[in-house]
């Protein structure tokens, strides 16, 4: 009996495949699925797959309440004028909730050879998928940008204490993400921005790139002594609790300050 059932199933599958090759069968209808044509490439999926991401464009579009707004070209078939190859990754997101873009540049993926990261990002934006698409290289670029911003902020903060008659400053960034300590406790724009902008990332950047940052800052701020040193853990262990940045310069040029003040007028008189 089992042999007979297997034979019948095999025969049905062969007939369906033959009809499909001849274009006589609409899989979108026969399987009760939605069929989308994205710039010439056909994709099949379930309505429930799309509505599983209700905040996205297709998730909203195929909600039951929007049925009257849909305009299929035939039955359950819809045409969308977007990047057909990139839609493979869009649909996989609906199915898995993950972005399955191959991170390995040596990947043999045909689509990866024809789609750029920027194109895929545009498609994610168009379909309003509530997820920021980044590959590893983009993440590294973002990290580099944040590192540059951190270094620029340090340069700005080096000079501000001089305006308060101090020739040095210490900043301590903690492993646990606590608000960095500033000594002396200046209430100055660039220093305050460092405290809040980099309270979580400051430690990690100093941990990874401390030597490079120190070398760069010494070359950029030739009038300053710049040093990065570890702060021991409070429990006496060998773990580093934080990193201390020390920036100091020579004493104020009294004549320069005096020459730019009202006191110089009194001296002339």
Give me a quick take on this structure:
This protein is an alpha+beta fold and 269 residues long. The chain has twelve helices and seven strands.
The total of helices stands at: 12
Distance between the termini: 120 Å
Rounded average pLDDT:
76
Task: Assess the beta-strand content as a share of residues.
Answer: 15-25%
Helix content: 40-55%
Compressed to H and E, one letter per element, the order equals: HHEEHHEHHHHEEHHEEHH
Strand order of the largest sheet: 5-4-7-6
Largest sheet: 4 strands, antiparallel
How many individual domains?
3
Which regions are unreliable across 5 or more consecutive residues at pLDDT < 50? Answer: 15-32, 105-112
Instruction: Characterize the overall form.
Output: elongated
Q: What is the C-alpha radius of gyration, as a whole number of Å? A: 32 Å
Number of strands: 7
Summing up helix and strand content along with how strands pair, one would put the structural category as alpha+beta
Domain Potassium channel tetramerisation-type BTB: 38-133
Protein name: 3236_t:CDS:1
Organism: Ambispora leptoticha
InterPro entries: SKP1/BTB/POZ_sf, T1-type_BTB
What brief labels describe this structure?
four-stranded antiparallel sheet; 3 domains; three-stranded mixed sheet; T1-type_BTB; SKP1/BTB/POZ_sf; Potassium Channel Kv1.1, Chain A; 3236_t:CDS:1; 269 residues; alpha+beta
Topology (SSEs and partners):
Elements: H1 2-21, H2 27-30, E1 34-38, E2 41-45, H3 47-51, H4 57-61, E3 77-80, H5 87-96, H6 110-114, H7 117-126, H8 136-159, E4 168-174, E5 181-183, H9 189-197, H10 201-220, E6 224-232, E7 240-249, H11 254-259, H12 263-268
Parallel strand pairs: 1-3
Antiparallel strand pairs: 1-2, 4-5, 4-7, 6-7
Helix pairs in contact: 8-9, 8-10
């Amino acid at each position: 009996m089992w042999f007979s059932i297997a034979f019948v199933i095999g025969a049905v599958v062969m007939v369906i495949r033959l009809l499909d090759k001849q274009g006589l069968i609409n899989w979108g209808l026969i399987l009760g699925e939605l069929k989308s044509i994205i710039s010439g490439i056909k994709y099949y999926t379930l309505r429930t797959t799309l509505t599983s991401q209700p905040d996205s464009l297709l998730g909203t579009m195929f909600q039951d309440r929007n049925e009257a707004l849909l305009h299929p070209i035939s039955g359950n078939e819809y045409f969308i004028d977007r990047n057909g190859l990139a839609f493979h990754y869009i649909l996989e997101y609906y199915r898995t909730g993950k972005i399955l873009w191959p991170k390995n540049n040596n990947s043999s993926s045909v689509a990866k050879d024809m789609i750029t990261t920027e194109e895929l990002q545009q498609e994610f934006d168009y379909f309003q998928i509530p997820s920021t698409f980044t590959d590893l290289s983009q993440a590294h670029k973002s990290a580099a940008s944040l590192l540059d911003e951190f270094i620029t902020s340090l340069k700005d903060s080096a000079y501000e204490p001089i305006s308060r008659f101090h020739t040095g400053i210490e900043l301590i960034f903690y492993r646990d993400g606590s608000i960095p300590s500033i000594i002396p406790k200046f209430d100055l724009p660039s220093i305050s921005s460092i405290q809040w902008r980099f309270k979580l990332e400051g430690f990690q950047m100093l941990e990874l790139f401390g030597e490079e940052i120190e070398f760069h800052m010494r070359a950029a701020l030739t009038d300053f002594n710049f040093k990065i040193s570890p702060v021991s853990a409070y429990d006496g262990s060998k773990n580093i609790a934080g990193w201390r940045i020390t920036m100091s310069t020579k004493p104020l040029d009294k004549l320069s300050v005096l020459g730019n003040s009202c006191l110089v007028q009194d001296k002339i008189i």
